[in-house]
Amino acid sequence: MSAATDPGFAARQIGEIAAALPGATAVFRRRKLDFCCGGAVRLADAVAAEALPAIEAELAALVPGVPEAPEETGALIDHIIARYHDVHRAQVPELIRLARRVEAVHRDHPEVPQGLADLLTRIEWEMTDHMQKEEQGLFPMLRAGHAPAMAMQLMRDEHDDHGLRLRGLEAITHGHEPPEDACNSWRALYAGTAQFAEDLTQHIHLENNVLFPRFGA
Fold first, then answer.
1. Mean pLDDT in runs of 10 for the chain (217 residues)?
2. What angle do CA 98, 166, 79 make, to 5 degrees?
3. Is the dihedral of CA 77, 83, 84, 89 positive or negative?
4. 35 and 80 belong to one structural domain
5. Which is the most buried residue in 102, 156, 163, 178, by most CB within 10 A?
6. What pLDDT score does 5 carry?
């Protein structure tokens, strides 16, 4: 059963949740729950009963939804920032941390994603700069009804660069498919890179094909 259709997490093993639900590793680390070596324990057995509802709520909040794009431009921009910009800012640092761990622990494995942490670090830097330019420059102009064609084209060009990085990410992770003997951290890493790639693709689509065309771009 997928994370998106599971009515609760209590009966599931910690390691299975970590491997299937991007972002769960960060929740478990904050709660000091061992999802790697101790991953065979059910969540309900690993935490105090009074803490379980709060942890399940945190995990449920990670399950991605697919809301429709708002009709009003200001609402669409708010949606892009909340659903994608803010989510990317939370996603990528955790992926970098997991990648560095996997690269270090499994450095002798033939399928280790050598260089993945460095690629994600570059992606984080480029995305942070890109999103800042949108939030501080382009988006306020669009909210005011201005249509800066050159600025929108620059963002489209940078989106193309992000697409190149996504192809590199897919190559280095073998299509986000961990080897059969991968540990929970490795599986969580690739579940996270797959979710990030999906989110970034949808993010770019909303800007290139929904937001910018409203201004003739």
1. 56 85 84 75 91 90 70 93 94 96 96 97 97 96 92 94 93 95 94 92 88 84
2. 85
3. positive
4. no
5. 102
6. 42
Reading the block at residue 102, the tokens are 């996997």
> Which run of H or of E encompasses 116?
helix 116-133
pLDDT of residue 36: 65
Residues 56 and 143 occupy one common structural domain: no
The size of the chain, in residues, is 217
Q: Which two structure tokens, joined as six digits, stand for 105? A: 């622990």
Read off the pTM. 0.77
Residue 157 CA to residue 101 CA, distance in Å, equals 33
Round to whole Å and give the CA distance between 206 and 217. 13
The tally of domains found in the chain comes to 2
Do 115 and 210 sit in the same domain of this protein? Answer: yes
**Among the listed residues 63, 47, 65, 66, the one whose alpha carbon sits nearest the alpha carbon of residue 55:** 47
* 13 backbone dihedrals φ, ψ, rounded to 5°: -75, 145
DSSP 7: S
Query: Which of these, 97, 62, 63, lies nearest to 189 by C-alpha position?
Result: 97
Residues 31, 14: contact at Cβ < 8 Å?
A: no
